[in-house]
Automatic annotation (TrEMBL):
Name this polypeptide is given: TetR/AcrR family transcriptional regulator
Superkingdom assignment: Bacteria
Species the sequence originates in: Streptomyces hyaluromycini
Keywords: DNA-binding, Transcription, Transcription regulation
Residue ranges flagged as DNA-binding region: 39-58
Amino acid sequence: MTPQAATPAYRRLSVEERRSQLLDAALSLFAHRVPEDVSLDDVAEAAGVSRPLVYRYFPGGKQQLYEAALRSAAEELEHCFDEPREGPLLPRLARALDRYLAFVDQHDAGFSALLQGGSVVETSRTTAIVDGVRRAAAQHILSHLAIADPGPRLRMTVRMWITAVEAASLIWLDEDKQPPLDELRDWLVDQFVAVLSVTARRDPQTAALVDALAADG
């Protein structure tokens, strides 16, 4: 008599594991469809669970689930700019952009919904989450610049560039992901140097930074 293979024992997921499973399913859906087009039934089906179970973990329904998924995506985006402070600045910035643009590429058409909020589900909370991503990215870059007390012109320049990166990413998706990612990354790094150079004409602190970057390169 041939022994049968043992059936894997069912393992009940912990609260955190189940919540993570539901968020992963939601993020996967939001990565390719705008929030308005994703229902709780869709999330339940993607996670292989029942709709009541989704409600058990997210009693606030779709809005609560969307905000939780947005926070999860925001944390991933924030980590994109968390590059070790070793070596020349511009290669560090390029590596951070590689991670950021890979996130954009992976989430494809849902990037706008994940980063900017959907027109139906956007609230002051989702806006604050997204703004937090931009501020965190700017803070990471200012930290890489190794300037103890950056002035308003330099801070504004960095935040303006972050906004430009976001806009370029959205346009890149509209343009069928052209130019190639490596070209887009290099172009954005060049733009960073360019906007710093413009600010340097009016700000001695930024001028010293541009000189340091030239020597570093």
